[in-house]
Structure formats: C-alpha cells, structure tokens
Amino acid sequence: MRPWALLLVLPLLLGGCGSSSGWGWYVIDPTTEGGWTNVRFLIAGYPSTIYISLLAAAISIVLGLVVSLPGLSSRRWLRWINRIYIEFIRSIPLLPMIFWVYFGLPLLLKGSWVEFPLDPFWAGVIALALSDSAFTSEIFRAGIQSIGRGQTEAAQTIGLTYFQTMRYVILPQAIRRILPPLANQFIYIVKMSALVSVIGLQELTRRANDLNTTEYRALEIYTFLIVEYLVLVLIISQAVRWLERRMGSDERR
Amino acid sequence: MTEAAIELAGVNKWFGEFHVLKDINLTVAQGERVVICGPSGSGKSTVVRCINRLETHEQGLIRVDGIELRDDAASIRAIRAEVGMVFQQFNLFPHLTVLENVMLGPVKARGLKRAEAEARARKYLERVRIPEQADKRPAQLSGGQQQRVAIARSLAMEPRIMLFDEPTSALDPEMISEVLEVMVELAEEGMTMIVVTHEMGFARRVADKMVFMDAGEIVETGTPAEFFSAPKSERCRTFLDQILSH
Fold it and tell me: ipTM value of the model?
C-alpha cells in the first residue's frame, strides 16, 4: 500500500469526529471531571506494566546468559541441555505459560518447602521471564560466537579461567553486538505484558478493559491504550539509542 | 641430568578422518631454541598448539617441565602457567588499552595487586620497546607494535617456555625485524623457545635445533649448520630451495 492511500481513510476518521455516534472523546476528556478521573485510572496502570517488564527482562537476561553458556560448550551433552531448554520453552505460547504458572505452579509446589501463593504480578514476571529467556539465550549465544576464537585462546594462554575469560574478555566485546537485539526483546516483553491482564493484574490493558465494561466506549479507550504503549516504547527506544551511542563511542577497533 | 623442558612422545592427532600429526617425537631441553618449519598444512602450528592444550591430542605423551598433560583441568592449568604463547594474529584484546592487555593475566590469573601488576606490565613494555604506547588501544598500533605488545603480555606471566606460532607471518615486511629483534634478545637471555616460522635468517641466528615437518610428520631434525648446508631428505631440500630462493 502506498502512503497516499492512507489519505482515503482520513474522511472516515474525520467524519467520525463530527458525529457523536462514532467517537465520544468525553470519556477521556481531561477537562471534564469524569474524563480526568478515567484518564488517571488508565495511566495508573503504568507502574505495573513498567515494573513487570523490567523485572521479567532482568531475570530473562540472567537466565538467558546462564542457558547460553552450555550451548557454546564443546561437550555434546551440554549443548543438548541448551537445545532442549530452548526448543521446549520457545514452543510454549505465552498465554498458556501464564495460566500454567499462575494456576498450575502453586499446586505443583504445594507441600514442598517453597510453597507460596503466587499473586498475578509475580506469576506474570515468572511467565514472561521464562518465555523470553529462550530468546535472550539465543541472542547471547550468537553474540558470544561472533567474537573470534583467538580471543578465547589468548585468554587461556595467560591463565584466565573460563569464567574470567567470559567476564573480562568475551562479554565486554560481545555486549555491543548483543545490546540492539536485547533491546528489541525488551520492547517485546513490554508489549507481551498486556497478556498478564487475563489473570487480573491491574496494568495498562486490564485497566482499559475494566473501564470499557462500565463506559462502553471501546474505540476511545483502546485508542488511548495504544497511545499509552506507543509513548512507553518510544521512550525505551530513545534510551536504548542513547545507551548504544555511549557504548559504541568506546569502540575503537 | 636436568629435566627436559618439553617432551613429546608418539603424539598422534586426527581432525576427523584427516591424520594431522603422525607419531611426533620431540624433546626440547631447558634453554633450548627450536625452530619448526615446513610447508603450510604440515602440522607445525598444531604441534605447538597441542603443547598448551589449545588442541587435544588423541595418542601419545606430552610432558612440560615434568608435568604430564592430561584431560584434567589441574594439569592444563599448571602447564599453561609455565608456557607463554604468541599468535600469528596477535589476538590482543581490542576493548582494553595496551597496559590493561598486559596487566590482565597478572591481576586475574596470578592475583597480583594492581600497582604491582602495573609496574610489571610497564617493565615488559619497556623490554619490547613500546612503553610510550601504554595507554593506546591495540587498533591504534601498527602490526609490529601489536605483536610486541602480545609478546609483553605473555612475558608478564613470567613463563619458562615461550611458543611462537608464525609470529611475523601477518606483518608487513618492514615490521618483521622489530619483532624478530625482541625475539632474539629473549633467546639470548636463555628463554626456552619453540618458534614456528619461515624466517630462516632468524633460525640461523638463534636456533639450536631445526625441525622440518611435512604432511604431519617430522621429516628431519638437525643443527642449523647441517640443516641448511646439507639437508638429508629430498622434501626438505625442495622446501629450502623454494623459500631461500625467493
């Protein structure tokens, strides 16, 4: 489709604005008291969405790194562990994963020493982190493999251990290549966190749903919701770009 | 009788079906300088890389300073502590400065304090005659300078044996001599060295023993005098003709 084709849609939208039967912006009009209350209610979902994404991303990065390392081993059984984990986790859709963690995991752990009730927030963090770790692990593997074999060999000949080689030689170089795909993955997590609304977490999407059931203004409320995600993702993109520039400026090869 | 620095007995290695090393027997005495030469693909780099376990060997015995090289991490670590290595492609760490490159091993592997390690690093940079480049990144240096940093990085671990795997093959001709000079000095100080190289001038000057390899075998060994003037095998004669006549 050519960009000018979008213009054809314009009369439709504008027409909608004119007639009250199409759009009813009053529902989120911040100049009215009712509208302002609704807007504040919707925006109050940000902390949950942000915290759940940050926590899930942090856990996913650590887990992904740990899982990627056996995948780089010369021992076949270690590579197998990595393969099985990735293929297994990667094949589970996020929604069933959320259900399994929220409804299933507490039953599984019942009676064991780690028995705990999972609230929707932590269930969401675990499900997102697990699901995402398969992807971050592959990102780490590709990034680490892109650093030449000679670097590892040189580190070995000056007596560094495996973990020292990773920590001081390989990862500092790999991180510059890993960062962009990792940022992509983080944006993906932010968007996928919307699914946690189904188990009742009061994040952005859940709040929009709740408001809609009382106001019946789906078009305005979900448009607002989309803009909320857009703003969040744009801010993240900017932050990542800044980070990339900072790390890239260090690179003199 | 002093113990041999390096001993290889009946070493065999395969890359899949390909028999890269065939019954390699080689003894290097303490303080001895051995130069290995031979056509490319003859297995000379592989021999050197087996000694500090960058490659595994399938058969035979490798012993370094009396320590037998086995599969266990302890023997590998003990041997690597004795053996320094210089690569054809330098393999400096591009994200660290020259000084940090040289300090990394002493600080992390030997547990030296930073000040101590820095003093040591500067000492060896002085020795390879590039103390003024300490704060630069490897990419800002010429090939010859990079290779000298790589030598300093190895020496900072104070090894008793140095392995050189074609140290000048990736260098522009005008930079070869600055690297060879440093290596000659090392040899004169009595370092045990195995050098894989095609620099026959260097070999004549410092080698105690010449080793000629072809197709995974040691074809001939001898003193430089007999090796260069009267090579015993046809293969060796052909090889020497080719590289000395160019």
Answer: 0.92
